[in-house]
C-alpha cells in the first residue's frame, strides 16, 4: 500500500478545515435575517455602556435596557445595522462596541501574533531543510 506524503495530509486537513469554516459561517445562506434575528445580533455585538465587558444581551442594567430600546426602535424604523451602530456610537462613543474598530493600534495587536507564527514556522522549515540536507549529503573524509 502506497504511503501518503506528509504535505498531502496537511493539505487535506487544511481543506477540510476551510470547508467546515465556510459551511459553518452560513456564507451561502440567501435568506435575509428576520427583524428579531437582527435585534439579537446587534444586542450580542454591542456592549453595555455601564457594565464591564458584558454585551447588551447579557446585561439587565438600565443603560443596557436603553440601548436595547434604541436597537428595537432602529430596526422598526428600517435603519440598517450600520446606521444603528453609528447612532449608538454617536451617543455612547466607541466604547459601546464589543469588537473595537479596525485601524490604529488594533491592527498591530492582530498582526503581531500572526507574524510571530509565520516567523516561527519559517524558522522551523529552514531548520528542517538544513537537517535533511546534512543527512542526505555523504560524509566528507579528510
Task: Report what the structure shows.
The chain is mainly α and 142 residues long. The chain has two domains: 68 residues, Cytochrome C biogenesis protein (Helicase, Ruva Protein, domain 3, Orthogonal Bundle), CATH 1.10.8; 41 residues. Helix content is 63%, strand content 0%. It has five helices and no strands. α2 packs antiparallel against α3 and α3 runs antiparallel to α4. The protein is elongated. The mean pLDDT is 88.
Label this structure with key terms.
single chain, 142 residues, mainly alpha, Helicase, Ruva Protein, domain 3, 2 domains, 5 helices
CATH class of the largest domain: Mainly Alpha
Mean pLDDT: 88
Helix count, DSSP H or I runs of 4 or more residues:
5
Helix content: 55-70%
Taking the alpha carbons of the first and last residues, their distance comes to 42 Å
Main pleated-sheet profile? none
CATH domain fold name of the largest domain:
Helicase, Ruva Protein, domain 3
The radius of gyration over CA amounts to: 25 Å
Order of helix and strand elements from N to C terminus: HHHHH
- Give me the CATH architecture of the largest domain, please: Orthogonal Bundle
The coarse silhouette is elongated
Poorly predicted residue ranges: none
Tell me how many strands there are. 0
Structural class: mainly alpha
Overall domain count: 2
CATH homologous superfamily caption of the largest domain = Cytochrome C biogenesis protein
The proportion of strand residues reads under 5%
